[in-house]
Amino acid sequence: MAKIKLSEISTLPPGKLEKDAIKTATAQIVYELDELQNLLYAQHKWSVLIVLQGMDASGKDGLIRDVLGQMNPLGVKVQPFKAPTEEEMDHDFLWRIHRYAPAKGMIQVFNRSHYEDVLVQRVHKWVDSDTIKARMKAINDFEKLLAEHNNTRILKFYLHVSRKEQAERLKERTEDPRKMWKYNDKDIEEAKLWKHYEKAYEDVFRNCNDIPWIIVPADQNWYKEYLVAKTLRDMLKGLKMKYPMLKR
Amino acid sequence: MAKIKLSEISTLPPGKLEKDAIKTATAQIVYELDELQNLLYAQHKWSVLIVLQGMDASGKDGLIRDVLGQMNPLGVKVQPFKAPTEEEMDHDFLWRIHRYAPAKGMIQVFNRSHYEDVLVQRVHKWVDSDTIKARMKAINDFEKLLAEHNNTRILKFYLHVSRKEQAERLKERTEDPRKMWKYNDKDIEEAKLWKHYEKAYEDVFRNCNDIPWIIVPADQNWYKEYLVAKTLRDMLKGLKMKYPMLKR
């Protein structure tokens, strides 16, 4: 992937789009997704992995609720990845990830992912740069394993918010009683490392395998939801799935 | 690894060795292994993966019982891999393997392994040769992941028996009441595919990463046990492990 400067990419929807029209379009896409997911499950040939990354408050949880969570829960699983447990630390960093790889017919959403091991760990200098390089290579190999050996289609979304938008959302968490549960002192500390995270993400994008990252302008939820839903819909349609014939 | 012709490698111990002297040496090594394994567990830095492959009746089970099973079970785990379950088939072929990768401080024995997916599946032509090549690459990457990202030292043993010895052992299973439980019609069918398995193994050896296969002449149990125990002992000693200091 070519070099990307996040600061040069807009976090806003393209100017010509109208919010109401887009929201209607999204509703239609979500409706289509329901049928496509049913087909994916029934055909039992492909699997889908959706990787969600982004700064704190970039809207990952909301996206899961409002778009990905709308499909039949029988065929959709969501797995959040937080700081590794002691048991997980006793293994290579992909060990805990691999067990949640999607089975055939399934859509698996990673709320944060194996990329944290080349992001947060790098920003805090818990590992050296050689380790980061080696991990990046291991991640690229690992994703190829899923893609080539289990028909896994991988969508990697970076939810791209501005620093200003993030600050507002974090502030909201201190003020809105319905959002206070999300507040964490640590987020304020992490937010100060913005430039370091930006750099770490840019390196991830540049060093990634041929499964591309999709940068999602995410200051406006309606556009973020539309773009993710549309990307997923288009990918699933491209699989040209068919219901299996009756086995006799 | 250079090209290996299994039919040109002896399945017998080197001529100059004396069975009794070797058995005494093995007992001494097994004694040392006990202490080394304790150190491995206590230091909690390295992990060990022992991969056992070989034709049917090449003596994998006996080796596990008589050598590897002599260590403290707290720090040694054995995992057999048989035909994959339906759930496992819904994932990439390394998914079921990865969850049994050794944690830090542990010795993990694989009784058969991820290599079955490029052996039995190839011999029976369940997958095409491109898939075999892609799997071999994935295996090499996977082992590097364990080695580089979890300090896993991998020992890959091929228990090398002659076709004649195998035939005798399979026959014994039909005659010795203590061994009849091991008898399986399918083994006789598989034994007929000897040449195909030999070729598949030779390709595995040739296409392997820089973690070498160790060919163990295995017609004589006493020599097989000695060589495996000695290899493990030497590897563990080479780690120059130390008991951790008291943390204050």
From TrEMBL, chains A, B:
InterPro entries, sorted: P-loop_NTPase, Polyphosphate_phosphotransfera, PPK2-rel_1, PPK2-related
MF annotations from Gene Ontology: polyphosphate kinase activity
Keyword list, A-Z: Kinase, Transferase
Record carries keyword Kinase: yes
Organism superkingdom: Bacteria
UniProt keyword Kinase, yes or no: yes
Pfam families linked to this entry: PPK2
Record GO biological process: polyphosphate metabolic process
Positions of the Polyphosphate kinase-2-related domain: 17-239
Homology family: Belongs to the polyphosphate kinase 2 (PPK2) family. Class I subfamily.
Name the record gives this protein: PPK2 family polyphosphate:nucleotide phosphotransferase
Organism: Chitinophaga japonensis
